[in-house]
Write a structure and sequence with these properties.
Elements: E1 17-21, E2 28-30, E3 37-39, H1 43-47, H2 49-57, E4 61-65, H3 81-91, E5 95-97, H4 104-112, E6 118-120, H5 135-142, E7 147-150, E8 172-174, H6 176-190, E9 196-200, H7 205-218, E10 221-224, H8 229-235, H9 247-261, E11 266-268, E12 273-277, E13 286-288, E14 297-302, H10 304-315, E15 319-323, H11 336-347, E16 351-355, H12 357-365, E17 374-376, H13 380-387, H14 392-395
Parallel strand pairs: 1-4, 1-7, 4-6, 5-6, 7-8, 9-10, 9-15, 10-11, 15-16, 16-17
Antiparallel strand pairs: 2-3, 12-13, 12-14
Helix pairs in contact: 7-9, 7-13, 8-9, 10-11
């Protein structure tokens, strides 16, 4: 699949208007003075800088488009203004913010761009046609540019006007971030260095059942942590106390356990836990040397023996994929399991891929983000890709897809 991905190497961009779909859906905060809204974390903006810099260097005239939050119509609290300002700071070049997504004034701004200059459209989700993949909105976006580049892997699992519809109207290719995401994840699926160790955590089994079953086919070892482990333990007949364990997750866990029984993949679950009183998030914490959770207690982290087992699997791996924390790591008393896995991932000589917002946040919290081979920006797109689903935003950039008119 990755070999057929069209990239910006195949586009002639000098002097041409290039519509770049980026993922600038960043967290915002008010300034300390309590006035202006600012970008709280510019990680996603920085991730797009390689593509932006290359296109500017090649003389492109850039029209940038992204969504921000989930506005219901026009919402000034979700304006792209802080993003445009932060991008200008990072690039050292002006970024003109259009007052809207489309319209005569926007078209005029795009026409006036000189080589290397940048403008940013307002929040694409101000337009209701974006999430409906409205052909009229796709056509209006296409009128602003000569070619299209998608560098927003995090939205690639959605068939929206700015991610899929526009590709039928302009010559289209993947930006460097999109290219790197696809090639990295494809390597996990097609030719990982063995053993392939997958660590999955987070809250809901039902949200990840597809990727659990996929890794039972692909991986040599699959380790389950976080609240995800409790439906599996319950399905095996263990007491889980007040731990997060919805009935539909237990059904999904039974399905996965049946698949694991017929798989060559070694399936690892928690063997000890760290507990907190039901309904309380603060101390005290209680270590449980086992997995039978007493009534009135909740499992909020994997225990030290489980952490050691998972860390040893990571140390022996050739490729590691990690998505989902091992516990409530934002609370110090329940951060040990996630920290142990993060440190193991950072220390192994294996190729390491970390995906998912909370997991990437954990690596940054522990100061280990720069010791990972690849931090995936995808979230849901990453999991759907690994699960084997076709991502509309990626498929549209394949040489096998219908070419632009």
């Amino acid at each position: 699949m990755a070999d057929s991905l069209r990239t910006i190497d195949e586009l002639e961009v000098e002097g041409r208007r290039v519509l770049v779909r980026a993922d600038f859906n960043v967290p915002l905060s008010r300034s300390e003075a309590g006035g202006s809204i600012e970008v709280a974390d510019d990680t996603r903006i920085r991730a797009a800088l390689e593509t932006i810099a290359e296109l500017r260097r090649r003389g492109a005239r850039l029209v940038l488009v992204s969504h921000l939050g989930r506005p219901k119509g026009i919402d000034q609290a979700l304006s792209m203004r802080p993003v445009a300002d932060r991008l200008a700071e990072l690039t050292g070049a002006p970024v003109t913010l259009a007052a809207a997504v489309t319209g005569p004034e926007v078209s005029e701004l795009a026409e006036r761009l000189a080589s290397g200059e940048m403008m940013m459209l307002e929040n694409i989700r101000y337009e209701p046609g974006e999430t409906r993949n409205d052909p009229e909105l796709a056509a209006a976006l296409a009128d602003l540019a000569d070619v299209y580049v998608n560098d927003a892997f995090g939205t690639a699992h959605r068939a929206h006007a700015s991610t899929e519809g526009i590709t039928h109207r302009l010559p289209s290719a993947a930006g460097r971030l999109m290219e790197r995401e696809v090639r990295t994840l494809q390597a996990i699926v097609e030719h990982p260095d063995r053993p392939l160790v997958a660590i999955l955590g987070g809250a809901k089994v039902s949200d990840k059942i597809g990727v659990v079953e996929r890794f039972l086919e692909l991986a040599d070892v699959l380790c389950i942590g976080g609240a995800m482990c409790f439906p599996f333990l319950a399905a095996q007949g263990h007491d889980v106390g007040a731990s997060l364990c919805p009935e539909d997750d237990i059904k999904s866990a039974r399905r996965a356990l049946a698949a694991a029984a017929g798989s060559s993949c070694r399936f690892e679950l928690a063997i000890d836990l760290s507990l907190g009183p039901a309904g309380q998030e603060g101390p005290p914490a209680r270590d449980l040397d086992g997995i039978e959770v007493p009534k009135g207690w909740s499992g909020l982290d994997i225990g030290p023996r489980t952490s050691a087992v998972y860390a040893a699997e990571i140390a022996a791996a050739g490729t590691v994929f990690w998505n989902g924390p091992m516990g409530r790591f934002e609370l110090e008393q329940f951060a040990a399991g996630t920290r142990a896995v993060a440190e193991a991932v950072a220390s192994t000589p294996a190729r390491t891929v970390v995906g998912g917002g909370e997991t990437v946040e954990a690596m940054r919290t522990f100061g280990l983000a720069d010791r990972v081979t690849h931090l995936s920006t995808g979230g849901g797109a990453t999991l759907e890709f690994l699960e084997g689903r076709e991502l509309p935003g990626v498929h549209a950039l394949m040489n096998t897809a219908v070419s632009a008119r």
